[in-house]
Amino acid sequence: MVEDLSNLLNSGEVPNIFASDEKGEICEKMGVIDRQKDKSMQTDGTPISLFKLFVDTVKEQLHICLAFSLIGDGFRNRIRKFPAIVNCCTIDWFQVSILKCYF
C-alpha cells in the first residue's frame, strides 16, 4: 500500500490500477468532458490523450493526508524505501501540545 502511495505521489498514477475495460470507460467519460472544453483546450481525442487528461485532472485535484508514527525504525525504513513520501510532500511536524488541544 505504501508503494502505491509512493507511485501516486511521484508520478500521479498507480501502475496497472485499472483494467482495460475500466480504462476504456474512463476515456469515454473524459471524452465527453473534453468536448465540453473550449476548442483551444481540447485534446486530439485519442485514448492515450484522454487518459493523460484524466491523470492530469487527478494530479490537480487529489489531496492525500498521511500520518506516520516516528517511534521505532518503521518510519525510517519506509522513507528509505519510498523517498517520494518526503520529496513529494509537505511535512508538518506536530507538537504534543497541539495534539492535546485537538484530540
UniProtKB/TrEMBL annotation:
InterPro entries: DHC, Dynein_heavy_chain_D4_dom, P-loop_NTPase. One of its GO terms (biological process) is microtubule-based movement. Pfam families: AAA_8. Residues 1-95 form the Dynein heavy chain AAA module D4 domain. One of its GO terms (cellular component) is dynein complex. It comes from the Eukaryota. This is Dynein heavy chain 7, axonemal. It comes from Cacopsylla melanoneura. The lineage of its organism: Eukaryota, Metazoa, Ecdysozoa, Arthropoda, Hexapoda.
